[in-house]
Amino acid sequence: MLLEYSQIQSFIDGRWVTGTGSVVTSVCPAAPDRVVAQGPAAGLAELDEAAAAARAAQPRWAALALHERGAVLSRAAAVLDSNAQAWGVELAAEEGKTKAEGIGEVQRAAQILRYYGNEGDRQSGEMFSSPRRGEHILVTRKPLGVVGVITPFNFPIAIPAWKIGPALVYGNAVLWKPAGTVPLLAMRLAQAFDAAGLPAGVLNLIVGDSGIGDAMVGDTRVDAITFTGSTGVGRRIAAAGAARGIPVQAEMGGKNAAVVLDDADIDLAVAQVLLGAFRSTGQKCTATSRLVLTEGIADTFLSRLTERADALIVGDPTMDDTQMGPVVSESAFGTISAGISRAVAQGATTIAGGHGYAEGPLATGYFIAPTIMELGTGAEDLWIEELFGPVLAVRRAADTEEAFRLANDSEFGLSAAIFTKDLTQALRAVDHLDVGILHVNSESAGADPHVPFGGAKKSGLGPKEQGRAAREFFTHTTTVYLRGGEAV
Ligand code: UN1
């Protein structure tokens, strides 16, 4: 079945261009025979053109007032807002999260651009006293130059907005390579910036394969790289960046725990863990993929959670009543299914889901049932490895001490959630859980645009994202020792 689909193009030097690479096809993961977008990818020739355009455009862009750059972002935000319904449905069709989440994500991208659109109204540097009479010391902020942006499939418009927004507002030009599975939503964001009057060459969208990403990282005209995606790729990019001596910001894996203590409000905790584990089909780096329950509530909690997980309506993400869509691709389906089978082989007990759909309307899509698996005491892979799907691994703890120890038992440290009504325990969690983001009595996912986002331990490299934290990565400082021209 070939319905009407969008033509894939790249956006280079202010023009939409048809690439010279091989044809890429973006399909709907709920019905892979449905093509969402198709067309030739960009090749090395387009990357070369984009890098030259970005270099040429960057000084003029940086010379505008911060307020003028911000105004472009604010106008792009308005374009996103006015297209949120239509583009949100496209997002659901292309990526597989529900329509409500898709629309919400386009609106979130607008909110992020509005935040950075107002950057001109905030403090833009610092001034220190000098130990020498008649002198002041200023710390000013300057753009890095051309920033390479590499984004994942799972937030096809919000993550690009939270990287491209600050990159641009601080005066950088951008080369952007989105994940190959979501070219349509990338084109929508570029379209919004184009409609907002962004000067040609300042943002260049290169729809290409991972080879283009590698070439971008290696291109001497690129001054910094910001990346979100898998740990393996992030480390490879960070190594390549280090070899070239350029800064790399990498937001990588998570294996985020929700800890529910005996005194928690069970209804609240069940509802939040369900959202954390299964919203966006578990495909968030902040998703809840581990659950630690203290013994007193473990049985009650698991029976209520399992009942709610089994009742989730899994289906076509563009339908109104769907609560969970498919995973993004055949290869994700394969990896997650293999992870579930391995967990079973290693002794895990499946207490919800644990399967795909061999029959019925879901059989042709990449659907996996909401899955909850209780682990024993051994070192199972499901406790350690990020599966990036709707799979929750559960362990029991004798007391709070053990619960915190289990929550910290990961090389990752992106986010965690703690459920308790006891302020003392909540404060202990703040001190003891080694994560970049901690939710007290709410799900492990979610990120507001004005506060730092990023992980501890091996979840992230380089400065945090979002809010003022983003300035640390997208600018460098010049410390100015400032005296008048006359001797004092
Ligand atoms: C969220 O929790 O809403 O790739 C955002 C990711 C994260 C973003 C999470 N960088 O899933």
UniProtKB/TrEMBL annotation:
<feature type="domain" description="Aldehyde dehydrogenase">
    <location>
        <begin position="16"/>
        <end position="480"/>
    </location>
</feature>
<feature type="active site">
    <location>
        <position position="251"/>
    </location>
</feature>
<comment type="similarity">
    <text>Belongs to the aldehyde dehydrogenase family.</text>
</comment>
<dbReference type="Pfam" id="PF00171">
    <property type="entry name" value="Aldedh"/>
</dbReference>
<dbReference type="InterPro" id="IPR016161">
    <property type="entry name" value="Ald_DH/histidinol_DH"/>
</dbReference>
<dbReference type="InterPro" id="IPR029510">
    <property type="entry name" value="Ald_DH_CS_GLU"/>
</dbReference>
<dbReference type="InterPro" id="IPR050740">
    <property type="entry name" value="Aldehyde_DH_Superfamily"/>
</dbReference>
<protein>
    <submittedName>
        <fullName>Aldehyde dehydrogenase</fullName>
    </submittedName>
</protein>
<dbReference type="InterPro" id="IPR016162">
    <property type="entry name" value="Ald_DH_N"/>
</dbReference>
<dbReference type="InterPro" id="IPR016163">
    <property type="entry name" value="Ald_DH_C"/>
</dbReference>
<dbReference type="InterPro" id="IPR016160">
    <property type="entry name" value="Ald_DH_CS_CYS"/>
</dbReference>
<dbReference type="InterPro" id="IPR015590">
    <property type="entry name" value="Aldehyde_DH_dom"/>
</dbReference>
<keyword id="KW-0560">Oxidoreductase</keyword>
<dbReference type="GO" id="GO:0016620">
    <property type="term" value="F:oxidoreductase activity, acting on the aldehyde or oxo group of donors, NAD or NADP as acceptor"/>
</dbReference>
